[in-house]
Amino acid sequence: MTSVGKARPAFSGVFRNGLLVLWLAIGLALALAGRPAQAHPTPESRVWIDTTDEGLRLTLLMPLNRLEFAFKSDLTAEPDQVMRRHAQALADYVLAHVSMRSGDQLWLAQKPRLRVMGNDASADLQVVLELKAPKGADPRKGLFRYDAVTHEVMTHSVKVFLRSDWAGGMVSQVPRPLAELDSTHLEMPIDLPASSNAVSGLLSLLKDGVMHIVEGTDHLLFLLTLLLVSPLWASGGRWTGVRTAGAALRHTAAVVTAFTAGHTVALVLGSSGWLQLPSAMVELAVAATIAISALHAIRPILQRGDVAMAMAFGLVHGQAFSASLSGAGLLWQQHALALLAFNLGIELVQLVMVLVLLPLLWWFQSRFPIAGAWFRRGVGVLAFGAALWWGHDRLPPDCLSREGLVTILCSAALCVLPLWLCSRLAGAIKGDIWVAQLKGFAPTEPEPVELRQ
């Protein structure tokens, strides 16, 4: 039998041919994506409120095609020139029409930070404005006044949300609507509850991480397909043996660690806003990862490539996790703590699954190899069927349109390209026991128990 030290994860011929087709598909997708799609202007202005130790941080979003009527200047003809021509005037306009006071005391407003989002008539002006409560005033209470745009455009409205309140335990949740302002309703009182222990917010995030996995049947099924073959040994394109208990434990640790590393990286990138992919694309890609891992459970797609698969698909699942965790409005220290708590919740569920399922799967497949093989195939078929159902359910409603085809092709690329890159990385450092080697374990596997197929 070939030793693991000489084995390298390799694609089958079918998989290599599939990659060639995929590259062509990606080129087509990029060509289609390059054509501009019709944008839709924001119908109203929006205000997101984040609390700080000294007051509030406001993030304003105003559509240029409404703002230009109140600002008395053409802003939509050349949105990319707005900041060069009107930055100071727009900052002064915002300070004149957005304010906060405690009784007769006006809050101190710092110079707004402005940027234009978009490059056509549907572009928006984003403004970040820091407001500091006067000395002796409660930074969680005051009267908020906003009449930007609405003082001239009578039909315009402004939706106000509380986005984050670290001291109050509201962290990375769906923004909470507070009020809707218009030309006849210019002011609203802000009265946030007294600050509580921030630990309550972290505990809430820990629970959110746990529930995101527990309630996510697709994520649970993907983890099950990974654990199903962790005790097994592949050779010649088949599952041919059961690892010894120690080898199975080390290999499972490598697989789970790789999955954790992948989804942590994607979670950090996604929740920080550095890499945000369309949710439709990500959810369709998640279904595809389950389908591929299910086929891998039936018959190995990658020779000794479980670690590469776990890391690659962890990147995809991490993007899905990031939809439930936003760092918007948080300081970097707060965001780091929020990531730690949320990710810890995810890891707790994974740890419980490994501790419960791995001993059972190893014992069952070692003691009853024939029944274990049929069980593995049966779970693989069921998981593949569920993945097809989810994939069908998550297809764009207009899947034959240009946008729908781009979503489908990019979802395929989101699955296969990380898998290819991670498999090459794993192959460069000696296959699927690279974690064990880095930690000083023996570079070769003990002889596995023969598995009857």
Order of helices and strands: HEEHHEEEEEEEEEHHEEHHHHHHHE
Number of helices: 12
Q: Count the strands?
A: 14
What share of the residues does DSSP label as strand, in percent? 15-25%
Question: What kind of oligomer do you see?
Answer: single chain
Largest sheet: 7 strands, mixed
Parts with pLDDT < 50 across at least 5 consecutive residues: 1-18, 28-41, 428-447
Morphology call = elongated
Class derived from helix and strand content: alpha+beta
Mean pLDDT: 79
Radius of gyration: 27 Å
Span of the ends, CA to CA = 17 Å
Work out the helicity level.
Answer: 40-55%
Spell out the key features of this protein.
16% strand; elongated; single chain; 51% helix; 453 residues; alpha+beta; four-stranded antiparallel sheet; seven-stranded mixed sheet
Task: Explain the overall architecture.
- 51% of the residues lie in helices and 16% in strands.
- By secondary structure, it is α+β, with helices and mostly antiparallel strands.
- It contains 12 helices and 14 strands.
Quick summary:
By secondary structure, the protein is α+β, with helices and mostly antiparallel strands. It contains twelve helices and 14 strands. The longest helix has 36 residues, at 332-367.
